Amino acid sequence: MIDFNFENNVPLQKGSLLISEPFLADQYFGRSVIFICEHNEEGTFGFVLNNFVAVQLENVVTDFPDIKTKVSIGGPVDTSNLFFLHGLGDLIPDSREIIPGVYIGGRFETVKEALRNDPSRIEFIRFFIGYSGWDADQLKAEMKEKSWLVKNKFKSSRIFDINEEDIWKHLLEDLGGKFKIMSTFPKNPSDN
After folding, report:
1. What region does 54 belong to: left with phi over 0, alpha with psi -120 to 50, or beta?
2. Angle, CA of 151, 17 and 161, to the nearest 5°
């Protein structure tokens, strides 16, 4: 018999991926994968990688290069602001490295200029409207309720892959065993 306890005992840290349990019923976090940008005693924040919206950046940001890319809803906090992750390192001044090859923020005007000069750089930039945030005790409680799995070993290129259709399912499959079986669970248990 398989134990379907949704827990993998991997420590949560800056640079982790949070993978939601299969039946988490939440418009932002159902079947979501969240890249954690900061985790400390004060709280945690990150961005949902797989909740895209049908918005073009040139409709949100004035003077943005005409570049087609998907925009994600990063979470329910501060949804009036645009955030970005990138893999351009020191090319973007004032950015901060989260894990090797993945940076947050920096000078937005430099991002726009870098894309004007070389549109192919878009494959190393992800844009998010809003972010996901928890105070110190809130996420700890959700972890105890087994709402989330943690994955710390993955290729940083996954953060920038906006074409992976079902990263949630693929990450569970990567974990193998009972998690691979869970990846096949229907969204609605009554559909079984």
Report:
1. beta
2. 115
Cα distance between residue 50 and residue 53, in whole Å: 10
pTM of the model: 0.91
User: In the predicted model, is pLDDT for residue 3 greater than 70?
Assistant: no
Q: Domains of the chain, with CATH numbers? A: 17-191 (3.40.1740.10)
For 78-129, what is each residue's pLDDT tens digit? 999 999 999 999 999 999 999 999 999 999 999 999 999 999 999 999 999 9
- The count of other CB atoms within 10 Å of the CB of residue 127 is 23
Retrieve residue 138's tokens.
């809130």
Strand-pairing partners, residue 103, are 86, 97
Residue 2 or residue 34, greater confidence: 34
Q: Which own/partner contact pairs does 169-177 have at CB distance under 8 Å and 24+ positions apart?
A: 171/17, 171/19, 171/33, 172/19, 175/8, 175/149, 175/151, 177/2
Instruction: Identify the bridge partners of residue 36 per DSSP, sorted by sequence position.
Output: 46
What are the backbone angles phi and psi of residue 182, rounded to the nearest 5°? -60, -30
Which string of b and e fits 51-64 if b means at least 16 CB within 10 Å?
Answer: beeeeebeeeeeeb
**Short-list 17, 14, 44, 30, CA closest to 134:** 44
How far from 101 is each of 44, 87, 104, 124, 145, CA to CA, in Å?
Answer: 20, 5, 10, 9, 32
